[in-house]
Protein 1
Amino acid sequence: MQVEKTEMNILVIDFFSSNRAAAKQTLAEHKVTVCRSYRDGDRLLDTPRYDIAMQKHLERKCTSENMPYHEARKKSLAETELPYWDVVFCDLLMRVGPMEQNAEGQKYVNQKMAVGWSLALRAAKNGARYVAVVTQTDCDSHPASAMLDDLNNHYFTIDGAQVLMTNKFTWVGIDDTERVCEKCGGTGKRTNPYGSQYDCHCDGGNIYAERGKDWGRILKQLVDSEKKG
Ligand SMILES: [Zn+2]
């Protein structure tokens, strides 16, 4: 089954730049916004559109898009005349804060915590259709990842959203970070001393310096799970 060809408005919240690059690469047919922190994700999930417009505007000023201030601002505002995110994907473990904490609470600020689920639930509550929390921390390295072991293959329906929380995903090589695999010479196939061929351990003849989460595949799983009911 194919992911619907309709362009979706997607937010991906992930600290690692390779995972954000993977989002733009694997969800290229959609409108993808990425951010790196809980705090930015928090704002983008339910603050007024104006806030989003200003963020876009700041991003634009930091890029090579060369346009007058008023034009850039107008364009940013126009781009935010969007319905709510169709899709929200995020990481599980993120540094939190600063938030409005008292002295007792301050000691937790900026610590890495398993907070992705709260972003996911808010996304579902606010109207996203497909939501996922995907951690690259393996179950042996963190108890919060181990807690997902039993949920990995289950698709929840929460407030009408299809929701997946998982530590199982496929890596995808990031474009332009690849080099030809020396072991197979880029063919993806190797030959053992007895003359029979086997698949090389590289990625189809390439070795990638950077890899990220295959968010495109996660979206396909969510769409398919909905169709299966
Ligand atoms: Zn190879």
Protein 2
Amino acid sequence: MTRTGSCLCGDITYEIEGDQLAVAVCHCEHCQRQSGGAFSTNFVAHGSQLTISGDIKTYEDKGRTGDAVYVLRKFCGNCGSPIVSELMEPEGVVAIKVGTLDDTSDITPDVQAWCDDKQSWVNLEGINAMDRE
Ligand SMILES: [Zn+2]
Ligand SMILES: [Zn+2]
């Protein structure tokens, strides 16, 4: 199936072909800062499944160490909506922000990551925790 999505202002639109590898909640501090929310929810897929239209901006997130680029955070430069994060590791994997999908009716998280950064009130019981360095 083909999914569609867009940023808040509509300058950026995208299509995803096929199914997700997972739907992952990320509690990491950088996702909290970028989204302004308590966590991000991501449609994880191969980059080849995603086609973006519009002039998207990229922020090179160097992660906690500040050494190497850890993830490319792509967002709309007009309205600021985060659209997708391209992971360096594993390479070729993208995390599309579920809140920008046009239809989220069948989206349920399978996994949650970076639980050490989780805000104290957030309780996602029943969703597998995947902790990683
Ligand atoms: Zn926009
Ligand atoms: Zn994150």
